[in-house]
Specification:
There is one protein chain. The protein has 2 domains: about 90 residues, no CATH class; about 150 residues, no CATH class. It is built from 11 helices and 4 strands, in the order βααββαβαααααααα.
Length: about 280
């Protein structure tokens, strides 16, 4: 282990296996750094604990005075996860280097998917996020999945790509990511019913029936023409409620297709009948 109080002449780079105790030691040299990012630490922790953390050239960095200038969130995640993780550790940088760290363009999930050769990677990435949120019960915007979690989700659910076929017919009323995500989620319950559901959104159903799918489509038409769009969680909830009603052949009126997320009587976020999730998602 390096002497954390030592000053350095010249820049060095070495691979180190950092365990929680070493991470704590390095964090004692965390001076004048940015505020820690709790959500980022949580996401790193999940990846490390799930063996999903990938070793890259992104380094833990110290300046020539021995001060930690980059890597505090990753080190906190090592401590929180209890794991030993391999990092490149760079020492001897000029103190001013801290001002220029992380100023480059951030690589997105869509970039990673495109490098894998995935078509329409922006739509796919957003759809994966929706599927993850619905399954995990993480509806709040701050509860974001990590790229590793979403790439693993795609690896485990390759049939999700087949739901791209519904983008064109349904796109006037729903964003492509929603079409992909909900067709796939529903197809996990009943593939034929999932196709029927999307056909109803695309082409409409008999107005005389006034069934759940008809009511949902009318709501989507109004939303498409409105300046103020439905918030994403509310839109997701309405889609799920209409699906559940269609599955149970429950009559539905326009006034009954709604989701109340705020006081005085907030509703739990609806679960997809037939799909198990780890928790029932709610909004803070």
């Amino acid at each position: 282990m390096h002497d954390t109080n030592r000053q350095y002449t010249g820049v060095t780079a070495i691979w180190e296996d950092i365990d929680p105790e070493l991470a704590k030691t390095y964090l004692t040299r965390n001076l004048n750094n940015r505020n820690e990012k709790v959500q980022k630490i949580d996401s790193y922790t999940r990846d490390m604990a799930a063996n999903g953390w990938k070793t890259t050239g992104s380094a833990i960095q110290f300046d020539r005075l021995g001060r930690l200038i980059d890597g505090q969130n990753r080190l906190r995640a090592v401590i929180k996860s209890g794991c030993t993780v391999r990092f490149l550790v760079v020492r001897g940088l000029e103190p001013e280097a801290q001002e220029h760290i992380d100023r480059g363009a951030t690589r997105t999930l869509a970039d990673a998917l495109a490098m894998r050769g995935e078509a329409q990677s922006n739509y796919l990435g957003a759809a994966l996020s929706i599927v993850w949120r619905i399954r995990e019960g993480k509806i709040n915007p701050g509860d974001a999945p990590t790229d590793a979690e979403l790439l693993n989700l795609l690896d485990q659910n390759p049939a999700l790509r087949e739901s791209f076929a519904w983008i064109h017919p349904c796109r006037p009323l729903l964003p492509p990511s929603h079409i992909i995500a909900f067709h796939y989620l529903f197809s996990c319950v009943d593939p034929l019913a999932a196709d029927t559901f999307m056909e109803g959104i695309a082409e409409g159903t008999d107005p005389k029936q006034r069934d759940a799918l008809y009511v949902l489509r009318q709501r989507l038409i109004r939303n498409a023409g409105a300046k103020a769009k439905l918030p994403r969680p509310e839109l997701w909830a309405l889609i799920i409620k209409a699906w559940n009603a269609m599955q149970h052949q429950t009559p539905m009126k326009r006034s009954t297709l709604r989701w109340r997320s705020t006081e005085p009587r907030p509703e739990p976020f609806p679960e997809i009948d037939g799909v198990l999730s780890s928790t029932s998602p709610t909004l803070d």
